[in-house]
Amino acid sequence: MSEIRVEALTHVYSAGTPFEKTAIENISLSIPSGQFVGLLGHTGSGKSTFIQHLNALLKPSSGTVYVDGEDINKDKKSRRAVKNKVGLVFQYPEYQLFEETVFADIAFGPKNMGLSKEEIEQRVHEACGFVGVEEELLQRSPLELSGGQKRRIAIAGVIAMRPGVLILDEPTAGLDPAGCRQIMDNICRYRRESGATVLIVSHNMDDAARLTERLIVFNRGTVAMDGTPEQIFAQPERLVEIGLNVPQSTALAMALREKGVQLAGSIYTHAQLMQALKGVGAC
Amino acid sequence: MLKDVTLGQYFPGNTVVHRLDPRTKILLLIFFIVALFAAKGWVGYGVMLLVTAGSMAISHISPKNIFKGLKPMIFIIVFTAALNLFYTDGTPVLPGWPITWEGVARSVQMVLRIVLLIAGTFLLTYTTSPMALTDGMERLLGPLKKIGLPIHEITMMMSMALRFIPTLIEETDKIMSAQKARGADFENGSLLQRAKALLPILVPLFVSSFRRADELAVAMESRCYHGGGGRTRMKQLHFAPRDLWALLLGAMLIAGMFVLRRFGL
Fold first, then answer.
1. Is B182 in Cβ contact with A83 (below 8 Å)?
2. How many structural domains does chain A have?
3. Which of A29, A51, B63, B149 is 20 to 30 Å apart from B136, CA to CA?
4. Which domain holds residue A30?
């Protein structure tokens, strides 16, 4: 629903002290409305710094960020307004829960937007629906729920603001496979039904390959690769060089190619691997 | 934003001051404070100012960092200055004014004393890693163990507290960002509103602090931590000749200040 454009974005932490560190340098890119983007890169590559610029939590050292064509750092008002437009879910968001009831916690964002009581109530129920939180949990304390439930409630707290752009920093970190699947399904559902632009930081290459339309690879504070999963996983060697994993099927294809099996095309899903293997008559 | 807090932050370096034994530096700070409070006249304060500036130069700590650290104390400094300015008897600056020449001199001296006191303390924490600091403290206070004071436990608690300051700051920063992303406003509104706005930060912070304390206790226990008795150290502290010289200089400073005081300078 919202598009993002970033021009020559640079951010330097602790400028002017012995701890000065350039986190991201001269990043320019644009993300059209409704795109599902995966952000890849190892720890310290600048992706977390990058996403915090998209809703004006961090002020660029230089460069400009536009959301729907407007400079989000223009003044105090636009810095505040963009937070209603771009929803950011941090890593381990369950640690930010603080209210006495799940309902109040999910309502925190909408309440800060100054919505009416009825509107808030409606949005909380809607957000619960998206992340699959049962209504009877709403009056419980968020602190007594399980890790996966807490995580979904924290995500609901951002979804309740109906952001046009939803950004998630490793939403599945530390969850069991069932929990991971559930969260990814919830996110896909929100995207499908609201048409929101979704950016997701992930270390899970299989998820990234399977779900997203575009991958942006960060390395040492710059964009190292940018393209569709097909384009990105056509050069698995580069990903390995940067120090990233590749999807399981890509890894298997790489190993087979090394052994002399001629597999055609970019392979990053099981189906593609099967197809390619059939092509050489291996299956 | 919170990362800019310099209070008690350690700036790694390799100057003579950095290499001094932490025990020496703690003792020197005590010497410095005694000398500072012995200062009476302008000459005395001048000497202390020079000593502080000299030590800063030797340890490559820029005045900017000291001033940054002074910021939180600005209220106390201004308050002290104003109090001394208006409530000292003597000859008025202008006839009928409540400000006296003595008051001006006194408030400048008091401000100088506070600033130098803080600067001296910062010099210690800027040039000594928290671990070395608590190590030195434990050794210096060691004799008190004989009368049953739990010195090891106290310094252990101190080093843990110091160790977790950056972690807590980072955590606070993270939670603040997360709540800001949900539209929380910490900067505007009345005092009451702003106090209320802290709740979404404090609750998660407390919850995670308790969790972390629990985890740390388990981690220490599973590595057989059982207090200070019979514990050896990886980094042994050794006095070097430079420590002796530094302490000698410190002692001379105190002696000098008391001499100056005798002459009312």
1. yes
2. 1
3. B63
4. 1-89+165-176+202-229
